[in-house]
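ok here's Homoserine O-acetyltransferase, seq below lol
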Amino acid sequence: MPITLPETLPAFDVLSREGVSVMTPERASRQDIRPLRIALLNLMPKKIQTENQFARLIGATPLQIDLSLIRMSEHQTKNTAAEHMETFYRPFAEVEDSGEKFDGLIITGAPIEHLPFEEVTYWDELRRVFDWTQSHVQSTFGVCWGGMAMIYHFHGVQKHILDHKAFGCFRHRNLCPTSPYLRGFSDDFVIPVSRWTEMKQAEIDTKPGLKTLLGSDEVGPCLVEDAGHRALYIFNHFEYDRDTLKQEYDRDVANGTPINVPLNYYPDDNPAMPPLNRWRSHAHLLYGNWINEMYQSTPYDLQEIGR
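and the structure came out like this:
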């Protein structure tokens, strides 16, 4: 089954050309099926690129997905056209006031890692989002900074500044092969990493109810399950495209920002060579498993969520 997207959203054409099954809302309304309602709270500066990445992953399952785009109410993006934001995004305050509920919510990362959480301009509203998920969302997926912010809000786990950027493709281990979120996963695999902060496994271990599912000897915990809050927190970037790390590296080089060549990313670590995507299959597995678990647990009547 396809993902439902407005025909004018850039992701509609991008995914259609890639062979991903997409459907207009008009066509979806004629099907006698309740789609899963998944929202994307997009905190990344390149909104369209991020929309494409997550829509590609959640649109690859047998279920019909209805994707809604949400932004912070007062924060204004400088990197995406105002017309795009006005056409396709709703402010969280509007969603909150409407009382509507969602099967799933993805909260992205944000390029504000060096700031203490409390100094982020939209922190108070984001805390409202986290609390709102407990009564209005069946399952929440916090990604990179979004996952760190959620685990800090609900459990007080701190992020720690690294002395150098964790940047590249790092090997990770499957720490919980029986987890339904890891069906089909290999014992080890690579995941793109791009961050200046980390969560420490020893601190996660002190918090009841948290279970680390994926981790790396080099860059620490990656995927943490928080069953009590119906949430997953992932600190790395399965959603990245083949060239996303390259774009970040080329940007920093062009700006004169000190940056290491991303490790284990280019063939022979040579940035003159085109990189290869070696994580795509596991990315689809993880998000497909998340959607399947959500589908198995979510009530048919969305209003029953949180009751």
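fwiw Residues 280-297 form the longest helix (18 residues). kinda neat tbh
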